[in-house]
Design a protein that fits this description.
By secondary structure, the protein is an all-alpha fold. The protein contains four helices and no strands.
Length: 77
């Protein structure tokens, strides 16, 4: 199964943090991580929906990078 960027970040924070502190759901950034996971999930769902809509509407083909630039404002890395 693939790992999202937010899940990867959470894993890295967990590795660098006191494991016991994190496992008790007391990590100071946990609420932000959970919110970011939800936002990322919604964006993935929206991107898929947009792709399906483009096929159904027979719109012009664009690459994933073009989609990102048009949807999220360009060359922000």
């Amino acid at each position: 199964m693939k790992q999202t960027a937010i899940e990867w970040l959470e894993e890295q924070i967990e590795k660098d943090s006191d494991i016991i502190f994190y496992e008790r759901n007391l990590h100071p950034y946990e609420k932000y991580i959970e919110q970011a996971k939800q936002m990322e999930k919604e964006r993935i769902i929206d991107a898929n929906r947009d792709g399906v809509d483009m096929v159904i509407a027979k719109e012009r083909y664009i690459t994933g990078e073009q989609y990102y630039n048009e949807t999220y404002g360009g060359n922000n890395e």
